[in-house]
Write a structure and sequence with these properties.
The complex is a heterodimer of chains A (523) and B (104). Chain A is mainly α. In chain A, 69% of the residues lie in helices and 4% in strands. Chain A has a domain of 224 residues. Chain B is built from three helices and no strands. In chain B, helix 1 packs antiparallel against helix 2 and helix 2 runs antiparallel to helix 3. Classes of the chains: A mainly alpha (523), B mainly alpha (104).
Chain lengths: 523, 104
């Protein structure tokens, strides 16, 4: 594969990388005038990368070289991450102290670069480093986001748990390498790299150990129970605008990596793994929603809400790909649709918190939110839209997202052995949506009905308002016209379908230690 | 006569992993926790190199991944020290138990 071809394929990533380095450099210079210009330059870099991605369009076929595989999934994740990335920068425009703005914007860009590379990775090494590239900037972003003890505490908690999850992920990947004899994720020419025992067709014990550790490492990234403990503390400690990013960017990378992990074995999950993910999904959404009911701090409440949303997305992941269908039946397409919608509505909810201030910093408790609708009706309306969308209430895109996941679960082929448990899981999800109304409505009620003698004042610049407005408008537009995004999401799964349907060809890298060879066998 | 095989290396790696996890849970000093993380990360390296050796592959994928992981561990240690200094500036200690404002 000629190197120039690879570089053109990676143009969006290269733009982000060069832009981030340039901003880092500009931020370190002592040009005071350049600093107010830095967030604008960051947006320009993202727009350039987005224009390149969209102009290129979906890749016809896929392009593979050197541990990368540019497929339809890559294209979808690229443009979703870059579009939400622009909104994230708008919301974070004025965030850190001026001296650190260059580093701050550059770190956001690097984290997004990590998401893009996760989507292109076809080698466990590349995938692992891409996920680290997503996480490491976020540790610093939290510490930079505001200068107080709580941000320092949040960053140290997030760092140590994040580093542990990375180490667990590496440990698991080492076992997957041992089982398959290669670090490649998918065999490009079609077929699945064998992780199964030749005699039984089941995952070997080494592969099973690896699979479980990788699942645990990625569960940290997506904040699934019981690996969620950091989320509420971190979300409370970090400044509100950057929290909107923390809830979305690592989660997107984590779910893309989970999709790749499951596709690597042809979505032919052993029954134990299926039940494990089932329990993970059920416990994550239930615990997230129930604990959120008990919170008084709005940011902690939204942190538990983001944990609950991980649970809904795990349901979609468990349904898995159904070839030739839209997100109404295809679990992966529903997941990709949901996570894009979730990114915007979650960011909108946190942007709302950032757009009000009290005497001593930002909004904290529900009581602080009393009466904000009378202070800024437009912002309160945007808040209501985003919160209704999180709740999954029409007329918002959150409703469509939940609808897709539920219909996919209900229409799961009835003759399949796992159809019954999936049905139960879908019912658990419906019950959870009802529970979640209990706390989402408290937020809206505080804003509109609550009375306060000293209501919080609107703060924040016009970019924050624009970011919030776009987020809430997107929720309404995607409710009226979800087919655009849904079509994109179902086309994005083409690469997954190809590899899953090719699962009958198993590429066996022989693991009779000392005797490595590649041959094709059909089970 | 005992010959050292793949299993022995895997056991060493598993012991390293558990030691690292135990260190993380019991140490209250941030640097101590960092040492625990490094142990867990290095257990993966032992695994990778051992699998690579016993797979008899000529591509040496595992050893290359281990090299990359060592560089990652160095970068992470630098970041950890930076975060510890930040905590020390705010709390005048790096005992993680004293960082307990965020609860609920």
């Amino acid at each position: 594969m000629p190197a120039s071809n690879l570089l053109t394929q990676l143009l969006p990533e290269l733009i982000l990388l060069v832009g981030a380095c340039g901003l880092l450099f500009l931020g370190a210079t002592r040009l005071a005038a350049s600093r107010s210009f830095l967030p604008f330059a960051g947006v320009l870099v993202l727009v350039a990368a987005l224009v390149v991605t969209i102009r290129r369009g979906e890749p016809d076929g896929s392009f593979a070289a050197m541990g990368l595989w540019i497929s339809s999934l890559t294209h979808y994740v690229r443009w979703v991450a870059l579009s939400v990335g622009i909104l994230i920068l708008l919301v974070n425009w004025y965030l850190p102290v001026q001296e650190e703005r260059g580093e701050f914007v550059a770190l956001i860009l690097l984290s997004l670069l990590g998401v893009l590379l996760t989507a292109s990775a076809n080698d466990w090494l590349v995938l692992f480093f891409a996920i680290e590239l997503v996480s490491i900037p976020t540790y610093i972003l939290i510490a930079l986001s505001r200068l107080d003890q709580r941000a320092a505490e949040a960053s140290v908690k997030y760092f140590f748990l994040g580093a542990l999850s990375a180490a667990i992920l590496a440990f698991g990947l080492s076992f997957l390498y041992g089982a398959s004899g290669t670090t490649q994720i998918q065999h490009i020419a079609g077929g699945v790299i064998s992780l199964t025992l030749p005699s039984t067709g089941e995952l070997g014990s080494i592969a099973m150990i690896g699979f479980l550790f990788v699942l645990a490492g990625l569960a940290f990234k997506v904040a699934a129970v019981p690996f969620h403990v950091y989320a509420p503390d971190v979300y409370e400690g970090a400044a509100a605008p950057i929290t909107g990013m923390l809830g979305f960017v690592p989660k997107l990378a984590g779910f893309v990596a989970l999709i790749k992990l499951f596709a690597a074995i042809g979505w032919n999950l052993p029954i134990e793994i299926k039940w494990l993910v089932w329990i993970l999904a059920a416990v994550t959404m239930t615990a997230g929603n129930v604990i959120a009911l008990l919170q008084d701090n709005v940011k902690r409440m939204l942190a538990y809400s983001s944990i609950a949303h991980t649970g809904y997305m795990l349901v979609a992941l468990l349904i898995g790909p159904v070839a030739g269908e839209g997100p109404m039946h295809d679990g992966v397409a529903a997941l990709l649709f949901y996570i894009a919608v979730y990114g915007a509505m979650n960011l909108g909810a946190f942007a709302m918190i950032a757009s009000f201030g009290r005497k001593h910093g930002e909004l904290e408790t529900l009581d602080d939110m009393n009466g904000i609708a009378s202070q800024a009706p437009a912002v309160a309306l945007a808040l209501a839209i985003c919160v209704f969308s999180l709740m999954g209430f029409p007329p918002t895109a959150g409703f469509i997202g939940k609808l897709y996941i539920l219909t996919a679960a209900f229409s799961f082929s009835a003759d399949h052995a796992f159809a019954q448990p999936l049905l139960v899981l879908a019912i658990v999800a419906v019950v959870n949506t009802v529970i979640s109304a209990g706390y989402y409505l408290r937020i809206v009620a505080a804003a509109y009905v609550g009375k306060s003698s000293t209501p919080a004042n609107p703060t924040g610049g016009f970019t924050l308002r624009w970011g919030l407005a776009v987020c809430s408008l997107a929720m309404l537009v995607l409710f009226v016209w979800p087919r655009g995004l849904a079509g994109q999401a179902s086309r994005a799964t083409a690469a997954i379908h190809d590899s899953v349907s090719a699962a009958h060809t198993v590429v066996r890298v022989d693991t009779d230690f000392g005797n490595a060879q590649v041959d094709r066998t059909s089970p | 006569m005992l010959t050292i095989g793949l299993t022995h290396y895997l056991i060493v790696a598993a012991v390293l992993f558990c030691t690292g996890l135990f260190t993380m849970i019991t140490k209250r000093n941030a640097i101590g926790i960092l040492i625990g993380v490094e142990l867990v990360l290095n257990s993966a390296n032992v695994n990778l190199v051992a699998f690579d050796r016993y797979l008899g592959s000529e591509r040496m994928d595992g050893q290359i991944v281990a090299l990359f992981a060592i560089v990652l561990a160095a970068a992470e240690a630098a970041l950890a020290v930076g975060i510890c200094i930040n905590v020390y500036k705010n709390l005048a200690t790096i005992d993680v138990d004293s960082a307990s404002q965020l609860q609920g």
